[in-house]
Amino acid sequence: MTASGATSGLPDRVHVREVGPRDGFQNEPETIPTAVKVELVQRLVKAGVTRLELTSFVRADVIPQLADAAELLRAVELPDAVSVSVLIPNERGLDVALELRDRFDEVNVFLSASETHNRKNVNRSVADSLAGVERVIGRARAAGLRCQGTIATAFGCPYEGRVEPARVAEIARALQAAGCEEVAFGDTTGMANPAQVRSLFPRWAEALPGAELTAHFHNTRGQGLANVLAALDAGVSSFESSFGELGGCPVPVGATGNVASEDMVSMLHEMGVETGIDLDGLLDAARAAQAHLGRPLSSHVLTSGPIEWSTAHA
Amino acid sequence: MTASGATSGLPDRVHVREVGPRDGFQNEPETIPTAVKVELVQRLVKAGVTRLELTSFVRADVIPQLADAAELLRAVELPDAVSVSVLIPNERGLDVALELRDRFDEVNVFLSASETHNRKNVNRSVADSLAGVERVIGRARAAGLRCQGTIATAFGCPYEGRVEPARVAEIARALQAAGCEEVAFGDTTGMANPAQVRSLFPRWAEALPGAELTAHFHNTRGQGLANVLAALDAGVSSFESSFGELGGCPVPVGATGNVASEDMVSMLHEMGVETGIDLDGLLDAARAAQAHLGRPLSSHVLTSGPIEWSTAHA
Description:
Chains A, B: Residues 1-30 are annotated as: Disordered. Chains A, B: It comes from Conexibacter stalactiti. Two copies of one chain form a homodimer. Chain A contains twelve helices and eight strands. Chain A is α/β, with parallel strands linked by helices. Chain A has a single domain, classed as TIM Barrel, CATH 3.20.20.
Protein backbone atom coordinates (compact mmCIF):
# COMPACT_ATOMS: atom_id res chain seq x y z
CA MET A 1 0.00 0.00 0.00
CA THR A 2 3.08 2.19 0.13
CA ALA A 3 2.70 4.88 -2.51
CA SER A 4 5.35 6.36 -4.71
CA GLY A 5 6.27 9.96 -3.90
CA ALA A 6 6.30 10.76 -7.59
CA THR A 7 2.73 9.63 -8.22
CA SER A 8 1.32 11.31 -5.10
CA GLY A 9 2.54 14.82 -5.96
CA LEU A 10 4.94 14.67 -3.02
CA PRO A 11 8.73 14.89 -3.32
CA ASP A 12 10.65 11.65 -3.89
CA ARG A 13 13.13 12.47 -1.17
CA VAL A 14 13.54 14.91 1.71
CA HIS A 15 16.32 15.90 4.10
CA VAL A 16 15.85 15.06 7.76
CA ARG A 17 18.06 16.64 10.41
CA GLU A 18 18.12 14.69 13.66
CA VAL A 19 18.15 17.21 16.52
CA GLY A 20 17.68 14.84 19.48
CA PRO A 21 21.34 14.91 20.62
CA ARG A 22 21.11 18.69 21.08
CA ASP A 23 17.45 19.58 21.56
CA GLY A 24 16.55 16.32 23.30
CA PHE A 25 19.58 15.78 25.54
CA GLN A 26 19.50 19.46 26.57
CA ASN A 27 16.02 19.05 28.02
CA GLU A 28 16.69 15.95 30.11
CA PRO A 29 16.58 16.67 33.86
CA GLU A 30 19.62 14.42 34.42
CA THR A 31 22.70 15.05 32.30
CA ILE A 32 23.37 12.10 30.00
CA PRO A 33 26.96 10.80 30.31
CA THR A 34 29.11 11.57 27.27
CA ALA A 35 29.74 7.87 26.60
CA VAL A 36 26.00 7.25 26.40
CA LYS A 37 25.59 10.21 24.05
CA VAL A 38 28.32 8.77 21.83
CA GLU A 39 26.62 5.40 21.72
CA LEU A 40 23.20 6.88 20.88
CA VAL A 41 24.64 9.15 18.19
CA GLN A 42 26.43 6.23 16.63
CA ARG A 43 23.20 4.26 16.51
CA LEU A 44 21.55 7.21 14.76
CA VAL A 45 24.32 7.41 12.19
CA LYS A 46 24.19 3.66 11.67
CA ALA A 47 20.47 4.11 10.91
CA GLY A 48 21.41 6.44 8.07
CA VAL A 49 21.09 9.89 9.63
CA THR A 50 23.22 12.28 7.55
CA ARG A 51 22.25 15.60 9.10
CA LEU A 52 22.81 15.77 12.82
CA GLU A 53 22.58 18.64 15.31
CA LEU A 54 25.03 17.22 17.80
CA THR A 55 25.35 19.74 20.61
CA SER A 56 25.50 23.42 21.50
CA PHE A 57 28.32 25.64 22.74
CA VAL A 58 26.39 27.31 25.52
CA ARG A 59 27.63 28.29 28.96
CA ALA A 60 27.93 25.20 31.14
CA ASP A 61 26.25 26.97 34.06
CA VAL A 62 23.22 27.78 31.88
CA ILE A 63 22.80 24.34 30.27
CA PRO A 64 24.88 21.78 32.20
CA GLN A 65 23.38 18.98 30.10
CA LEU A 66 25.55 20.14 27.17
CA ALA A 67 28.67 21.08 29.16
CA ASP A 68 30.48 18.21 27.42
CA ALA A 69 30.09 19.76 23.93
CA ALA A 70 33.83 19.78 23.15
CA GLU A 71 34.37 16.35 24.69
CA LEU A 72 31.46 14.90 22.69
CA LEU A 73 32.67 16.44 19.44
CA ARG A 74 36.09 14.89 20.03
CA ALA A 75 34.68 11.50 21.02
CA VAL A 76 32.25 10.74 18.20
CA GLU A 77 33.63 9.16 15.08
CA LEU A 78 31.31 10.02 12.22
CA PRO A 79 31.64 9.22 8.52
CA ASP A 80 32.25 12.11 6.11
CA ALA A 81 28.75 11.70 4.72
CA VAL A 82 27.32 13.02 7.99
CA SER A 83 26.98 16.78 8.18
CA VAL A 84 27.44 17.67 11.85
CA SER A 85 25.83 20.84 13.11
CA VAL A 86 26.35 22.68 16.38
CA LEU A 87 24.08 25.33 17.88
CA ILE A 88 25.90 28.61 18.53
CA PRO A 89 24.18 31.11 20.84
CA ASN A 90 26.80 33.90 20.63
CA GLU A 91 30.37 34.82 19.62
CA ARG A 92 31.83 33.37 22.79
CA GLY A 93 30.24 30.03 21.91
CA LEU A 94 31.68 30.30 18.41
CA ASP A 95 35.16 30.97 19.83
CA VAL A 96 35.06 27.70 21.78
CA ALA A 97 33.56 25.78 18.88
CA LEU A 98 36.19 27.00 16.41
CA GLU A 99 38.89 25.32 18.48
CA LEU A 100 37.34 22.10 17.12
CA ARG A 101 36.69 23.43 13.64
CA ASP A 102 37.61 20.16 11.92
CA ARG A 103 35.01 18.21 13.95
CA PHE A 104 31.84 19.79 12.52
CA ASP A 105 30.40 21.16 9.29
CA GLU A 106 27.58 23.56 10.08
CA VAL A 107 26.50 26.08 12.67
CA ASN A 108 22.91 26.78 13.65
CA VAL A 109 22.16 30.28 14.93
CA PHE A 110 18.77 31.26 16.26
CA LEU A 111 16.46 34.01 17.41
CA SER A 112 12.72 34.43 17.94
CA ALA A 113 10.38 36.32 15.67
CA SER A 114 8.49 37.50 18.74
CA GLU A 115 10.01 40.25 20.92
CA THR A 116 8.54 38.85 24.12
CA HIS A 117 9.67 35.29 23.46
CA ASN A 118 13.15 36.46 22.45
CA ARG A 119 13.51 38.56 25.61
CA LYS A 120 12.35 35.69 27.82
CA ASN A 121 14.68 33.28 26.02
CA VAL A 122 17.89 35.31 25.67
CA ASN A 123 17.11 38.61 27.45
CA ARG A 124 17.66 40.72 24.35
CA SER A 125 15.57 42.50 21.73
CA VAL A 126 15.13 40.80 18.36
CA ALA A 127 17.27 43.55 16.77
CA ASP A 128 20.11 42.94 19.24
CA SER A 129 19.85 39.18 18.70
CA LEU A 130 19.94 39.64 14.95
CA ALA A 131 23.04 41.84 15.16
CA GLY A 132 24.82 39.21 17.27
CA VAL A 133 23.69 36.40 14.99
CA GLU A 134 24.98 38.29 11.94
CA ARG A 135 28.43 38.57 13.53
CA VAL A 136 28.45 34.82 14.28
CA ILE A 137 27.39 34.00 10.72
CA GLY A 138 30.11 36.23 9.26
CA ARG A 139 32.85 34.59 11.28
CA ALA A 140 31.47 31.07 10.75
CA ARG A 141 31.35 31.63 6.98
CA ALA A 142 34.93 32.92 7.09
CA ALA A 143 35.87 29.65 8.77
CA GLY A 144 34.26 27.74 5.89
CA LEU A 145 31.21 26.57 7.83
CA ARG A 146 27.74 26.18 6.37
CA CYS A 147 25.22 28.36 8.23
CA GLN A 148 21.65 27.62 9.22
CA GLY A 149 19.47 30.26 10.88
CA THR A 150 16.49 29.19 12.95
CA ILE A 151 13.53 31.48 13.62
CA ALA A 152 11.63 30.44 16.73
CA THR A 153 7.90 31.20 17.25
CA ALA A 154 7.61 31.60 13.46
CA PHE A 155 3.99 30.34 13.50
CA GLY A 156 2.79 31.94 16.73
CA CYS A 157 4.02 33.02 20.13
CA PRO A 158 2.68 31.83 23.48
CA TYR A 159 3.04 35.39 24.84
CA GLU A 160 2.15 37.58 21.87
CA GLY A 161 -0.16 35.29 19.94
CA ARG A 162 -0.04 36.15 16.26
CA VAL A 163 3.41 36.73 14.76
CA GLU A 164 3.37 38.80 11.59
CA PRO A 165 4.47 36.58 8.66
CA ALA A 166 6.06 39.58 6.94
CA ARG A 167 8.18 40.17 10.04
CA VAL A 168 9.28 36.52 9.96
CA ALA A 169 10.18 36.93 6.28
CA GLU A 170 12.15 40.07 7.09
CA ILE A 171 14.23 38.27 9.72
CA ALA A 172 14.70 35.33 7.34
CA ARG A 173 15.96 37.66 4.60
CA ALA A 174 18.43 39.21 7.05
CA LEU A 175 19.71 35.74 7.95
CA GLN A 176 20.12 34.85 4.29
CA ALA A 177 21.83 38.17 3.53
CA ALA A 178 24.25 37.53 6.39
CA GLY A 179 25.23 34.20 4.85
CA CYS A 180 22.74 31.50 5.89
CA GLU A 181 22.20 28.94 3.16
CA GLU A 182 19.35 27.44 5.15
CA VAL A 183 16.58 29.05 7.22
CA ALA A 184 14.52 26.91 9.62
CA PHE A 185 11.06 27.98 10.77
CA GLY A 186 10.32 26.72 14.27
CA ASP A 187 6.85 26.07 15.66
CA THR A 188 8.28 26.45 19.13
CA THR A 189 5.15 25.78 21.18
CA GLY A 190 3.03 23.87 18.67
CA MET A 191 0.72 26.64 17.46
CA ALA A 192 0.99 25.97 13.71
CA ASN A 193 -1.86 24.46 11.77
CA PRO A 194 -1.75 22.92 8.29
CA ALA A 195 -3.74 25.67 6.55
CA GLN A 196 -1.32 28.24 7.95
CA VAL A 197 1.71 26.12 6.99
CA ARG A 198 0.46 25.82 3.42
CA SER A 199 -0.11 29.55 3.26
CA LEU A 200 3.16 30.71 4.84
CA PHE A 201 5.91 28.57 3.32
CA PRO A 202 5.28 29.69 -0.26
CA ARG A 203 5.42 33.34 0.90
CA TRP A 204 8.66 32.71 2.76
CA ALA A 205 10.14 30.79 -0.17
CA GLU A 206 9.40 33.72 -2.45
CA ALA A 207 11.21 36.02 -0.03
CA LEU A 208 14.29 33.76 0.08
CA PRO A 209 15.35 32.82 -3.45
CA GLY A 210 18.04 30.16 -3.41
CA ALA A 211 17.77 29.39 0.31
CA GLU A 212 16.88 26.00 1.74
CA LEU A 213 13.73 26.28 3.86
CA THR A 214 13.44 23.85 6.75
CA ALA A 215 10.36 23.04 8.83
CA HIS A 216 10.75 22.33 12.53
CA PHE A 217 7.43 21.31 14.04
CA HIS A 218 6.37 20.40 17.53
CA ASN A 219 3.59 17.95 18.32
CA THR A 220 2.22 19.92 21.27
CA ARG A 221 -1.37 19.78 20.01
CA GLY A 222 -0.97 16.52 18.04
CA GLN A 223 -0.75 18.34 14.69
CA GLY A 224 2.97 17.72 14.11
CA LEU A 225 2.66 15.22 11.27
CA ALA A 226 -0.30 17.04 9.73
CA ASN A 227 1.97 20.10 9.56
CA VAL A 228 4.74 17.99 8.00
CA LEU A 229 2.25 16.90 5.32
CA ALA A 230 1.14 20.50 4.78
CA ALA A 231 4.77 21.61 4.45
CA LEU A 232 5.43 18.89 1.86
CA ASP A 233 2.41 20.19 -0.05
CA ALA A 234 3.89 23.69 0.17
CA GLY A 235 7.15 22.52 -1.43
CA VAL A 236 9.26 22.05 1.72
CA SER A 237 11.76 19.20 1.49
CA SER A 238 13.85 19.73 4.63
CA PHE A 239 12.69 18.79 8.12
CA GLU A 240 13.98 18.57 11.66
CA SER A 241 12.82 16.04 14.23
CA SER A 242 13.97 14.32 17.37
CA PHE A 243 14.29 10.57 17.95
CA GLY A 244 12.17 9.19 20.78
CA GLU A 245 10.19 12.46 20.71
CA LEU A 246 12.87 13.83 23.04
CA GLY A 247 13.14 17.50 23.87
CA GLY A 248 11.44 20.52 22.43
CA CYS A 249 11.01 22.30 25.77
CA PRO A 250 7.65 20.77 26.60
CA VAL A 251 5.45 23.48 28.10
CA PRO A 252 3.38 22.73 30.09
CA VAL A 253 5.14 19.79 31.70
CA GLY A 254 3.87 16.57 30.17
CA ALA A 255 3.11 18.18 26.82
CA THR A 256 4.74 16.73 23.73
CA GLY A 257 7.69 18.62 22.23
CA ASN A 258 9.42 17.92 18.93
CA VAL A 259 7.90 15.72 16.26
CA ALA A 260 9.33 12.22 16.77
CA SER A 261 11.78 11.23 14.05
CA GLU A 262 10.49 7.67 13.90
CA ASP A 263 6.86 8.82 13.50
CA MET A 264 7.83 11.29 10.76
CA VAL A 265 10.08 8.84 8.93
CA SER A 266 7.38 6.16 9.13
CA MET A 267 4.80 8.48 7.55
CA LEU A 268 7.21 9.70 4.88
CA HIS A 269 8.26 6.18 3.87
CA GLU A 270 4.65 4.94 3.83
CA MET A 271 3.89 7.77 1.39
CA GLY A 272 6.86 6.84 -0.80
CA VAL A 273 8.98 9.82 0.29
CA GLU A 274 12.54 8.64 0.92
CA THR A 275 14.70 9.90 3.77
CA GLY A 276 17.77 7.65 3.53
CA ILE A 277 17.06 6.59 7.12
CA ASP A 278 16.34 3.02 8.10
CA LEU A 279 13.26 3.03 10.35
CA ASP A 280 14.29 -0.11 12.26
CA GLY A 281 17.69 1.42 12.97
CA LEU A 282 16.05 4.62 14.17
CA LEU A 283 13.77 2.62 16.46
CA ASP A 284 16.83 0.82 17.75
CA ALA A 285 18.36 4.18 18.72
CA ALA A 286 15.10 5.31 20.35
CA ARG A 287 14.85 2.05 22.32
CA ALA A 288 18.44 2.49 23.50
CA ALA A 289 17.62 6.04 24.66
CA GLN A 290 14.53 4.73 26.41
CA ALA A 291 16.57 2.04 28.19
CA HIS A 292 19.14 4.58 29.31
CA LEU A 293 16.59 7.15 30.48
CA GLY A 294 14.53 4.52 32.28
CA ARG A 295 11.13 5.88 31.26
CA PRO A 296 8.84 5.12 28.35
CA LEU A 297 9.33 7.58 25.50
CA SER A 298 6.16 8.71 23.83
CA SER A 299 6.74 8.37 20.10
CA HIS A 300 3.95 6.37 18.51
CA VAL A 301 5.89 3.99 16.30
CA LEU A 302 8.20 3.14 19.20
CA THR A 303 5.12 1.87 21.06
CA SER A 304 3.14 0.35 18.20
CA GLY A 305 6.00 -0.96 16.08
CA PRO A 306 6.33 -0.14 12.39
CA ILE A 307 3.59 -1.01 9.93
CA GLU A 308 3.91 -4.53 8.55
CA TRP A 309 2.59 -4.90 5.04
CA SER A 310 3.65 -8.54 4.78
CA THR A 311 1.23 -11.40 5.36
CA ALA A 312 3.52 -12.96 7.93
CA HIS A 313 0.84 -12.73 10.64
CA ALA A 314 -1.94 -14.31 8.59
CA MET B 1 -3.74 33.15 12.79
CA THR B 2 -6.85 31.06 12.40
CA ALA B 3 -7.56 30.69 8.71
CA SER B 4 -10.89 30.61 6.97
CA GLY B 5 -11.92 27.23 5.59
CA ALA B 6 -13.13 28.92 2.45
CA THR B 7 -9.84 30.60 1.63
CA SER B 8 -7.74 27.52 2.38
CA GLY B 9 -9.53 25.24 -0.06
CA LEU B 10 -10.92 23.25 2.87
CA PRO B 11 -14.62 22.84 3.64
CA ASP B 12 -16.26 25.49 5.84
CA ARG B 13 -17.87 22.87 8.03
CA VAL B 14 -17.67 19.14 8.70
CA HIS B 15 -19.69 16.59 10.65
CA VAL B 16 -18.04 15.00 13.67
CA ARG B 17 -19.52 11.90 15.25
CA GLU B 18 -18.38 11.34 18.82
CA VAL B 19 -17.82 7.60 19.32
CA GLY B 20 -16.25 7.64 22.79
CA PRO B 21 -19.36 6.48 24.66
CA ARG B 22 -19.42 3.28 22.56
CA ASP B 23 -15.90 2.70 21.26
CA GLY B 24 -14.16 4.23 24.28
CA PHE B 25 -16.31 2.92 27.14
CA GLN B 26 -16.32 -0.56 25.57
CA ASN B 27 -12.54 -0.76 25.82
CA GLU B 28 -12.21 0.26 29.47
CA PRO B 29 -11.05 -2.62 31.66
CA GLU B 30 -13.52 -1.58 34.39
CA THR B 31 -17.14 -1.07 33.40
CA ILE B 32 -18.14 2.57 33.79
CA PRO B 33 -21.31 2.98 35.90
CA THR B 34 -24.35 4.04 33.89
CA ALA B 35 -24.76 7.25 35.91
CA VAL B 36 -21.20 8.27 35.01
CA LYS B 37 -21.85 7.50 31.36
CA VAL B 38 -24.94 9.68 31.47
CA GLU B 39 -23.00 12.55 33.01
CA LEU B 40 -20.18 12.31 30.44
CA VAL B 41 -22.60 12.07 27.52
CA GLN B 42 -24.46 15.12 28.76
CA ARG B 43 -21.21 17.07 28.92
CA LEU B 44 -20.49 16.06 25.32
CA VAL B 45 -23.90 17.21 24.19
CA LYS B 46 -23.53 20.46 26.13
CA ALA B 47 -20.28 20.98 24.16
CA GLY B 48 -22.30 20.86 20.96
CA VAL B 49 -21.89 17.25 19.82
CA THR B 50 -24.80 16.48 17.46
CA ARG B 51 -23.76 13.04 16.23
CA LEU B 52 -23.20 10.52 18.94
CA GLU B 53 -22.53 6.77 18.88
CA LEU B 54 -23.96 6.05 22.29
CA THR B 55 -23.67 2.32 22.84
CA SER B 56 -23.96 -1.11 21.25
CA PHE B 57 -26.49 -3.91 21.58
CA VAL B 58 -24.00 -6.73 21.96
CA ARG B 59 -24.25 -9.77 24.20
CA ALA B 60 -23.53 -8.77 27.79
CA ASP B 61 -21.26 -11.80 28.29
CA VAL B 62 -19.14 -10.72 25.30
CA ILE B 63 -18.85 -7.01 26.17
CA PRO B 64 -19.98 -6.47 29.76
CA GLN B 65 -18.88 -2.83 29.57
CA LEU B 66 -21.93 -2.14 27.38
CA ALA B 67 -24.40 -4.44 29.16
CA ASP B 68 -26.32 -1.32 30.24
CA ALA B 69 -27.18 -0.32 26.65
CA ALA B 70 -30.95 -0.24 27.20
CA GLU B 71 -30.62 1.38 30.61
CA LEU B 72 -28.30 4.08 29.19
CA LEU B 73 -30.62 4.80 26.27
CA ARG B 74 -33.51 5.23 28.69
CA ALA B 75 -31.52 7.37 31.10
CA VAL B 76 -29.99 10.00 28.80
CA GLU B 77 -32.06 13.04 27.96
CA LEU B 78 -30.81 14.40 24.67
CA PRO B 79 -32.14 17.28 22.59
CA ASP B 80 -33.77 16.48 19.24
CA ALA B 81 -30.83 18.08 17.44
CA VAL B 82 -28.63 15.17 18.54
CA SER B 83 -28.64 12.18 16.23
CA VAL B 84 -28.08 9.16 18.46
CA SER B 85 -26.51 6.09 16.90
CA VAL B 86 -26.22 2.56 18.26
CA LEU B 87 -23.90 -0.15 17.00
CA ILE B 88 -25.79 -3.30 15.98
CA PRO B 89 -23.75 -6.49 15.56
CA ASN B 90 -26.59 -8.79 14.44
CA GLU B 91 -30.36 -9.27 14.22
CA ARG B 92 -30.64 -10.31 17.85
CA GLY B 93 -29.03 -7.00 18.82
CA LEU B 94 -31.48 -5.18 16.57
CA ASP B 95 -34.43 -6.97 18.22
CA VAL B 96 -33.39 -5.65 21.63
CA ALA B 97 -32.63 -2.19 20.27
CA LEU B 98 -35.99 -1.88 18.54
CA GLU B 99 -37.75 -2.17 21.90
CA LEU B 100 -36.35 1.34 22.46
CA ARG B 101 -36.93 2.56 18.91
CA ASP B 102 -37.95 6.06 19.99
CA ARG B 103 -34.68 6.59 21.91
CA PHE B 104 -32.26 6.61 18.95
CA ASP B 105 -32.02 7.73 15.32
CA GLU B 106 -29.37 5.69 13.55
CA VAL B 107 -27.85 2.23 13.51
CA ASN B 108 -24.24 1.48 12.70
CA VAL B 109 -23.52 -1.94 11.21
CA PHE B 110 -20.02 -3.16 10.55
CA LEU B 111 -17.79 -5.75 8.94
CA SER B 112 -14.13 -6.00 7.94
CA ALA B 113 -12.79 -5.79 4.42
CA SER B 114 -10.20 -8.40 5.33
CA GLU B 115 -11.28 -12.05 5.63
CA THR B 116 -8.78 -12.81 8.37
CA HIS B 117 -9.66 -9.78 10.46
CA ASN B 118 -13.38 -10.45 10.04
CA ARG B 119 -12.98 -14.06 11.13
CA LYS B 120 -10.91 -13.09 14.15
CA ASN B 121 -13.41 -10.38 15.07
CA VAL B 122 -16.77 -12.08 14.52
CA ASN B 123 -15.87 -15.65 13.50
CA ARG B 124 -17.54 -15.40 10.13
CA SER B 125 -16.56 -14.92 6.49
CA VAL B 126 -16.96 -11.46 4.99
CA ALA B 127 -19.75 -12.81 2.78
CA ASP B 128 -21.65 -14.20 5.78
CA SER B 129 -21.17 -10.94 7.67
CA LEU B 130 -22.41 -8.95 4.70
CA ALA B 131 -25.54 -11.12 4.41
CA GLY B 132 -26.29 -10.59 8.11
CA VAL B 133 -25.62 -6.87 7.88
CA GLU B 134 -27.94 -6.57 4.90
CA ARG B 135 -30.76 -8.17 6.90
CA VAL B 136 -30.17 -5.75 9.77
CA ILE B 137 -30.14 -2.77 7.42
CA GLY B 138 -33.37 -3.87 5.77
CA ARG B 139 -35.20 -4.19 9.09
CA ALA B 140 -33.69 -0.96 10.48
CA ARG B 141 -34.76 0.97 7.41
CA ALA B 142 -38.24 -0.49 7.73
CA ALA B 143 -38.29 0.89 11.28
CA GLY B 144 -37.41 4.34 9.90
CA LEU B 145 -33.83 4.37 11.13
CA ARG B 146 -30.93 5.97 9.28
CA CYS B 147 -28.23 3.39 8.50
CA GLN B 148 -24.47 3.75 8.60
CA GLY B 149 -22.21 0.91 7.50
CA THR B 150 -18.64 0.75 8.75
CA ILE B 151 -15.89 -1.11 6.92
CA ALA B 152 -13.02 -2.04 9.25
CA THR B 153 -9.43 -2.52 8.02
CA ALA B 154 -10.33 -0.44 4.95
CA PHE B 155 -6.75 0.89 4.67
CA GLY B 156 -4.81 -2.21 5.64
CA CYS B 157 -5.07 -5.32 7.78
CA PRO B 158 -2.66 -6.34 10.52
CA TYR B 159 -2.99 -9.98 9.40
CA GLU B 160 -3.28 -9.72 5.63
CA GLY B 161 -1.43 -6.49 4.96
CA ARG B 162 -2.73 -4.88 1.81
CA VAL B 163 -6.51 -4.76 1.40
CA GLU B 164 -7.64 -4.37 -2.18
CA PRO B 165 -9.33 -0.94 -2.56
CA ALA B 166 -11.67 -2.36 -5.21
CA ARG B 167 -12.81 -4.99 -2.70
CA VAL B 168 -13.49 -2.25 -0.14
CA ALA B 169 -15.50 -0.36 -2.78
CA GLU B 170 -17.46 -3.51 -3.58
CA ILE B 171 -18.44 -3.97 0.08
CA ALA B 172 -19.29 -0.28 0.33
CA ARG B 173 -21.56 -0.52 -2.71
CA ALA B 174 -23.32 -3.51 -1.18
CA LEU B 175 -23.90 -1.53 2.03
CA GLN B 176 -25.29 1.40 0.07
CA ALA B 177 -27.48 -0.88 -2.03
CA ALA B 178 -28.86 -2.44 1.14
CA GLY B 179 -29.88 0.99 2.42
CA CYS B 180 -26.91 2.70 4.11
CA GLU B 181 -26.96 6.44 3.58
CA GLU B 182 -23.49 6.67 5.10
CA VAL B 183 -20.43 4.45 4.75
CA ALA B 184 -17.52 4.81 7.18
CA PHE B 185 -14.01 3.66 6.33
CA GLY B 186 -12.11 2.52 9.40
CA ASP B 187 -8.33 2.55 9.77
CA THR B 188 -8.69 -0.08 12.46
CA THR B 189 -5.04 -0.50 13.41
CA GLY B 190 -3.58 2.78 12.16
CA MET B 191 -2.06 1.64 8.86
CA ALA B 192 -3.36 4.47 6.66
CA ASN B 193 -1.07 7.17 5.36
CA PRO B 194 -2.07 10.52 3.85
CA ALA B 195 -1.01 9.71 0.28
CA GLN B 196 -3.16 6.58 0.40
CA VAL B 197 -6.09 8.47 1.94
CA ARG B 198 -5.94 11.08 -0.83
CA SER B 199 -5.86 8.36 -3.42
CA LEU B 200 -8.60 6.13 -2.04
CA PHE B 201 -11.43 8.44 -0.96
CA PRO B 202 -12.02 9.87 -4.44
CA ARG B 203 -12.21 6.31 -5.82
CA TRP B 204 -14.65 5.28 -3.13
CA ALA B 205 -16.73 8.45 -3.59
CA GLU B 206 -17.02 7.66 -7.30
CA ALA B 207 -18.26 4.17 -6.44
CA LEU B 208 -20.89 5.52 -4.03
CA PRO B 209 -22.86 8.33 -5.66
CA GLY B 210 -25.13 10.07 -3.16
CA ALA B 211 -23.67 8.37 -0.09
CA GLU B 212 -22.03 10.20 2.79
CA LEU B 213 -18.44 8.99 3.19
CA THR B 214 -17.03 9.09 6.72
CA ALA B 215 -13.40 8.77 7.78
CA HIS B 216 -12.58 6.97 11.02
CA PHE B 217 -8.86 7.17 11.74
CA HIS B 218 -6.71 5.81 14.51
CA ASN B 219 -3.57 7.51 15.77
CA THR B 220 -1.60 4.30 16.26
CA ARG B 221 1.44 5.59 14.37
CA GLY B 222 0.81 9.28 15.09
CA GLN B 223 -0.59 9.95 11.62
CA GLY B 224 -4.23 10.39 12.69
CA LEU B 225 -4.53 14.13 12.13
CA ALA B 226 -2.38 14.01 8.99
CA ASN B 227 -4.90 11.50 7.64
CA VAL B 228 -7.77 13.80 8.65
CA LEU B 229 -6.10 16.59 6.67
CA ALA B 230 -5.62 14.28 3.68
CA ALA B 231 -9.27 13.22 3.85
CA LEU B 232 -10.37 16.86 3.88
CA ASP B 233 -8.23 17.39 0.79
CA ALA B 234 -9.95 14.38 -0.79
CA GLY B 235 -13.38 15.91 -0.23
CA VAL B 236 -14.38 14.09 2.97
CA SER B 237 -16.52 16.16 5.32
CA SER B 238 -17.60 13.56 7.89
CA PHE B 239 -15.35 12.24 10.63
CA GLU B 240 -15.48 10.06 13.71
CA SER B 241 -13.34 10.53 16.80
CA SER B 242 -13.30 9.76 20.49
CA PHE B 243 -13.01 12.27 23.33
CA GLY B 244 -10.01 11.80 25.59
CA GLU B 245 -8.49 9.53 22.91
CA LEU B 246 -10.49 6.73 24.55
CA GLY B 247 -10.91 3.35 22.92
CA GLY B 248 -10.06 2.11 19.49
CA CYS B 249 -8.83 -1.31 20.64
CA PRO B 250 -5.23 -0.26 21.19
CA VAL B 251 -2.99 -3.04 19.93
CA PRO B 252 -0.34 -3.49 21.21
CA VAL B 253 -1.22 -2.43 24.74
CA GLY B 254 -0.13 1.17 25.26
CA ALA B 255 -0.57 2.09 21.62
CA THR B 256 -2.90 4.95 20.78
CA GLY B 257 -6.34 4.12 19.43
CA ASN B 258 -8.90 6.51 18.00
CA VAL B 259 -8.04 10.04 16.98
CA ALA B 260 -8.85 12.27 19.97
CA SER B 261 -11.89 14.47 19.37
CA GLU B 262 -10.31 17.46 21.09
CA ASP B 263 -7.13 17.22 18.99
CA MET B 264 -9.13 16.91 15.78
CA VAL B 265 -11.56 19.71 16.66
CA SER B 266 -8.65 21.94 17.68
CA MET B 267 -6.93 21.42 14.31
CA LEU B 268 -10.15 21.89 12.35
CA HIS B 269 -11.06 25.12 14.14
CA GLU B 270 -7.52 26.50 13.80
CA MET B 271 -7.84 25.93 10.04
CA GLY B 272 -11.21 27.69 9.95
CA VAL B 273 -13.23 24.48 9.50
CA GLU B 274 -16.27 24.59 11.76
CA THR B 275 -17.61 21.61 13.67
CA GLY B 276 -20.34 23.16 15.82
CA ILE B 277 -18.47 21.82 18.85
CA ASP B 278 -17.09 24.05 21.59
CA LEU B 279 -13.50 22.98 22.26
CA ASP B 280 -13.57 24.08 25.90
CA GLY B 281 -16.73 22.08 26.49
CA LEU B 282 -15.17 19.04 24.86
CA LEU B 283 -12.09 19.40 27.07
CA ASP B 284 -14.41 19.66 30.05
CA ALA B 285 -15.94 16.28 29.11
CA ALA B 286 -12.49 14.74 28.61
CA ARG B 287 -11.31 16.08 31.99
CA ALA B 288 -14.40 14.60 33.64
CA ALA B 289 -13.65 11.22 32.01
CA GLN B 290 -10.05 11.48 33.16
CA ALA B 291 -11.16 12.23 36.72
CA HIS B 292 -13.53 9.28 36.72
CA LEU B 293 -11.05 6.83 35.20
CA GLY B 294 -8.27 7.98 37.52
CA ARG B 295 -5.51 7.93 34.91
CA PRO B 296 -4.12 10.59 32.59
CA LEU B 297 -5.72 10.42 29.16
CA SER B 298 -3.35 10.92 26.29
CA SER B 299 -4.97 13.44 23.99
CA HIS B 300 -2.59 16.30 23.25
CA VAL B 301 -4.84 19.30 23.75
CA LEU B 302 -6.07 17.91 27.06
CA THR B 303 -2.44 18.06 28.27
CA SER B 304 -1.26 21.24 26.54
CA GLY B 305 -4.45 23.25 26.71
CA PRO B 306 -5.98 24.89 23.64
CA ILE B 307 -4.01 27.40 21.58
CA GLU B 308 -4.36 30.95 22.90
CA TRP B 309 -4.11 33.59 20.21
CA SER B 310 -4.79 36.44 22.60
CA THR B 311 -2.01 38.53 24.06
CA ALA B 312 -3.25 37.90 27.60
CA HIS B 313 0.06 36.29 28.61
CA ALA B 314 2.26 39.08 27.27
